[in-house]
Amino acid sequence: xxxxxxxxEHEAETERQLEERPIQKIKExxxxxxxxxxxxxxxxxxxIYGYLRRGELxxxxxGSKYFLIREDIENFFSQQDKFEPIxxxxxxxxxxxxxxxxxxxxxxxxxGLYKIAQTQNxxxxxxxxxxxxxxxxxxxxxxxxxxxxxITEWYTVAEIQEKFGMTLSAIYCLVSKESIPKIKVGIExxxxxxxxxxxxxxxxxxxxxxxxVPQAMAKFNMTRDQLYHYLKTxxxxxxxxxxxxxxxxxxxxxxLGKLLAPPSI
Length: 265
Fold this sequence. Notes:
By secondary structure, this protein is an alpha+beta fold.
């Protein structure tokens, strides 16, 4: 219902601008903006973005705006038999893990996996009696919560006790409280040296890199509603500072870099 309301709002805005900005002026321009394209064709801006994302229309970025060639637009729509509302298409899932592969790769118990799956709703299927899990969704979830591939230095429990003089219960309490990444080597647990040092205050934290909402909108040429749709759908990390929302740069680049191919002429 919210989406339909936004689309109607965009369509009403298009109608208003049609009355205020004669189409003839747009027809005289060889290059037109996305807003002008929507006015020229008589559809909403999200509809034009849909054509751009699927590569049916192409645009070139100049400064902070994208421009389309008016003749290309005329040719494209003159070949259409009828107008079809743009609906998002789900990407087909082609790569899967077995349950056993997930347990071995991410050092998690069977019950732990199913507990996480209940809250995350991972796509899955059955193949010859075996449960198969979407590789992309599983990897994305565990990469955010256990980035072991990016960590190269680890403490053993004995090393932590020797360096910081901590008891076992104090170590486990700190690991749980600070969500310190860990791995298992055989039966021995090891903890991220970098994260443990940060938790104990013996290392300086790296300055996080963020986008502001306007910066993210400008970079990916999105409306605020479109941006927040992707932030919510892919659970991109956001931090609130006063009235401002900051978005994790690497996570957003990773998500939108795969979903939105850069438009080109």
